[in-house]
Amino acid sequence: MRYSALSLLMNGLFGNKAWKPAWRDATPKPHYDVIIVGGGGHGLATAYYLAKDFGISNVAVLEKNYVGSGNVGRNTTIIRSNYLLPGNNPFYELSMKLWEGLEQDFNFNAMVSQRGVLNLFHSDAQRDAYTRRGNAMRLHGVDAELLDRAAVKAMLPFLDFENARFPIQGGLLQRRGGTVRHDAVAWGYARGADQRGVDIVQGCEVTGIRRENGRVVGVETSQGFIGCNKLALAAAGNSSQVASMAGLKLPIESHVLQAFVSEGLKPFIDGVVTFGAGHFYVSQSDKGGLVFGGDIDGYNSYAQRGNLATVEHVAEAGKAMIPALSRVRVLRAWGGIMDMSMDGSPIIDRTPIDNLYLNAGWCYGGFKATPASGFCFAHLLARDTPQETAAAFRLDRFRRGYLIDEKGQGAQPNLH
């Protein structure tokens, strides 16, 4: 069933009884061309593009819980392509271009809202760094504007411009950035993949990876053994655990990242604003709630909840930027499991084990990268060569010394 204004009208007239499920709850077959472990945004996007762009539809997506139960539904919904380094800049711009046509592509309302992303700066040194980043963006054809203090104040007068410790001097603006409804992304990709013959198997936990003569031949699951020609791992914060089933140790750590939403307010913040003197970012949802977050908790964890020290840290940074937040009540918080790589950039590559492919290490960039990640991973699985935009995201770059360290923090995952 294709969604349209006409289908909404006709189903409304007849009690909305003719709607079909968005996707089948499939029973796994004995064997597939490709098995994708992880039914989040990246896994579902990979399956969608494999079927749509590369004609490979004998694919299964295995999700141990329900579709969208992981990080794709546990983030702050921000999309942007304001990156500095050559490896990251073209990749995230590809993702932005895919976001811009995504809803028409898979016929689902993902609420893509290009309301702008503004990164504030508070010192001369930070202004120079943002100028460099903005110039790099524009050299790659990505939109960027450097705003002075007056321009930022005209746009966001409620910020604390006179903060004694962190006076706002300006900001770097990407108008094409914005937000997307996170769970709708998972639903749209799941629906699109299912329509093209992909099996989406929920409640199917991978418990082992079977190898014969050094090659992966399938997976042991809670629903029995399933064979495959190629096994693709897109398990986000659980990537290390799944990869260890094949004897592979990854250069990543798992950390919790918390996110928060406030009570509903009248329209307050038009776009996305990030604090330059601390890690805090905020936007306002269509329902009026402020959606915000900050740093990871800083220690290794597989829990989808965080600690109170980080809650306090995020609240302090938010109030330093917007004093009015002190009067806003927080309704709920949640945590996603981040797979933090050693240099803060992702991995999309074949592994040293035959028939085993990896999509991991997304750090803070996972949600915004969903379309490009899925397309590039599908390209790798279909053609066994990296898609040119993701060619820098090799697994062996850590051994070779070709790091993509966007923040310049060195090989310390919890600082990226």
Let me know the number of strands.
18
State the end-to-end CA separation: 43 Å
Helix content: 25-40%
DSSP helical segment count: 10
Please tell me the CATH architecture of the largest domain by its name.
3-Layer(bba) Sandwich
Proportion of beta-strand residues: 25-35%
Q: Can you tell me the CATH class of the largest domain?
A: Alpha Beta
How is the biggest beta sheet arranged? 8 strands, mixed
**CATH fold assignment of the largest domain:** FAD/NAD(P)-binding domain
Radius of gyration: 21 Å
CATH superfamily of the largest domain: FAD/NAD(P)-binding domain
Uncertain stretches: none
Structurally, the number of domains stands at 2
Note the main attributes of this structure.
cytoplasm; 416 residues; 2 domains; D-Amino Acid Oxidase, Chain A, domain 2; Rhodanese-like_dom; eight-stranded mixed β-sheet; 27% strand; SoxB; 28% helix; globular; alpha/beta; FAD/NAD(P)-binding domain; 10 helices
